[in-house]
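Researcher: I'd like a candidate sequence for this fold, 249 residues long. If you have to choose between options at a position, lean toward the conservative one.
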């Protein structure tokens, strides 16, 4: 591995997302045998990436397969890309900075945007807007997860939902992910909160399984809360928290 020993700890996310080259992956696998902290961090990033991808996944449009099969004979296969030997050292040098956002983009964008381009013309402007919103969400989430100081914590809400929070002090942002979140019911919505010295401040909404960047200022917040509120939200919690999870430090 062409990194100093102290740099090895920064590659846990890239390892978990499959962004390391064969030699670096082999070396980092050996490093994991002796580093409990990296083993735990890599496992957390693997779980987080899986939840992010599953949360934004959408079933393909019914016309997707017929259009692909009809067009496949007319698509010319590109030749393989063979990197020059001169470029290899440069790639290794920038891996630590670029691997995580690129791998995250691949895993989440594939789920969120995979079917968009294929049937965009059929669905017109509405689908273009959805694609733009999905890309903006991907960019915001990627920025937090790619931050060098990103930290992760997992939890379970009282209604059984599996939750993950990834926070970055450097970006002053936090990402919340929920899976297996039951439907809120008619006239209800799930509202997120940031706890500031005992005061709960609104931090956005999550109405189904998915991933959102929390609104508000997480810098001096101690915890993230989740409550079930009337549609449209509340200025302060009106129900007992389904989740009150300490922000990762």
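Model: Candidate sequence:
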């Amino acid at each position: 591995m062409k990194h100093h020993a102290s740099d090895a700890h920064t590659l846990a996310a890239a390892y978990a997302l499959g962004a390391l080259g064969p030699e670096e992956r082999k070396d980092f696998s050996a490093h994991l045998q002796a580093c409990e902290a990296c083993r735990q961090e890599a496992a957390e990033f693997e779980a987080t990436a899986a939840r992010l991808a599953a949360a934004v996944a959408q079933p393909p449009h019914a016309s997707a397969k017929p259009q692909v099969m009809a067009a496949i004979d007319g698509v010319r296969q590109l030749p393989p890309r063979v990197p020059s030997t001169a470029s290899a050292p440069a790639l290794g040098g920038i891996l630590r900075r670029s691997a995580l956002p690129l791998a995250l983009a691949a895993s989440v964008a594939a789920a969120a945007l995979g079917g968009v381009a294929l049937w965009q013309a059929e669905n017109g402007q509405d689908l273009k807007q959805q694609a733009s919103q999905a890309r903006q969400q991907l960019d915001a989430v990627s920025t937090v997860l790619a931050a060098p100081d990103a930290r992760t914590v997992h939890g379970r809400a009282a209604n059984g939902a599996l939750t993950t929070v990834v926070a970055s002090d450097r970006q002053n942002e936090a990402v919340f992910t929920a899976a297996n979140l039951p439907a809120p019911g008619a006239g209800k919505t799930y509202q997120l909160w940031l706890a500031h010295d005992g005061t709960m401040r609104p931090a956005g909404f999550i109405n189904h399984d998915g991933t959102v960047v929390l609104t508000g200022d997480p810098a001096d917040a101690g915890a993230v809360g989740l409550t079930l509120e009337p549609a449209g939200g509340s200025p302060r919690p009106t129900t007992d928290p389904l989740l009150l999870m300490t922000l990762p430090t």
